[in-house]
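Running log. JK asked me to keep both predictions on one page so they can be read side by side. First protein, sequence followed by its tokens:
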Amino acid sequence: MFFEPSMALFSFAVGILGAMCGGIQTFICTGFAGVVVYALKAAGVEPTLLGDSVLNTLLLPAIIFNAAAVATAVAARKYPDEVKGYDISRSLIFSHDTGLMLVGGLAGTIGYLLFSLFSYVGLPADCGSFAIIVVGVVVRLTLSTGRKWNPDATAYYREQGWQYWVFQSVNCIAVATVFALLLRDAGPEFYGVGFSISALLLIFGYAGSGQKMPTTHQITNIVGVTLGLTGGNILLAILFGWISNMIYLLTAKYFNEDCSTHIDGPAVAIFATSLILNLIF
């Protein structure tokens, strides 16, 4: 069924939680829940309730993450000295603003409807990431009060030179290789755990000081998808993981960093690469 009223109401409440907690925080929780689900599966336990009700509804990024991103964009307009529209790591509970919470609720419902629609029509790509992209683009076009893209990105890449791309490629290929081998050995039932591990690891980017944890779920997600579509082809999994990461780097630098609202680079990378994969295989 495309639309369930109870799910729409549930998504509205979940959206309020997203605005309360912040986008990155909810995504880390998604990763934690995913790791638990796969750990239970490895132990021979089928976590039906935890998987269906928690991981695939309560913590579905298309709902709870979308809600945080939209609420953050509105908060940046109302509290420009305290919130940056692209920074989805902020809890908005500081505002004591009921309106922001309701915005999050509405965004959560919209995220659910988009995800449900794309799944219903059989979109040949990752439906959750596309829902996040659609909402992000609409918010950028309607709520943006500042830069819609980052014109400094080209100068940055020129300054970095080819060494930057070599550095990023080496790191990406290492991540893709490790997870491709691990996931292939684990079997198709566990191809999604790489995404969950990457999401959970972001917690280290917000604990203590020093270097932030790099974003890798755009790599591990596509590695798992590629393995599933190609019958466990390691080389293709590494290749498409690399392609996904390149798309992420360009999107994040040009259309998210220092811009007025959040457009999710990993979501763009996952959607684009999964679309290519599904059209080919």
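And the second, directly underneath as requested:
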Amino acid sequence: MLIYKKLSILVSCLALSLNCAHWAIANEPRPANGEYRVQSVSDGDTIKVATIKGGNEITVRLACVDSEDLRYSRTPQALRARNRLRQIFDQANMRVQLTFTGQDQFGRYVADARLANGTLVQEVLLRERIARFTPRYRNYCPNSFAALQRAAGQSQR
């Protein structure tokens, strides 16, 4: 009985510490909205950027879209998504306008991404069927949600 009680206390402490770690990550101040330089493309929905003047590199998750994660899958679709996103940013001189809306459970900043001409990057990925629409980050993308939903061919719910 004593072992179960100690184990229960240990599990409770672990859960509390994980919850506190998540809270600390999710409540970091978000970066300023504006123009950033794309440093690298991790996959079809995640990029690393830095400010134009230089500065710390941050990881950004594109709001409202999802593509296969290259860490777990080297499928042709996952590679195509990453390569197309690289191509989009190459054509834009590796510049992107980001509107930050929050942070996800992995510590990535979630943002809408627009090119200098106003094109919403996520909308391009959806129209070309390179990424899937997901309402998972709906709270993070109030400005683009309806447009992205239409681009994915889904009705509003």
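Observation for JK regarding the second prediction: The chain has a mean pLDDT of 79.
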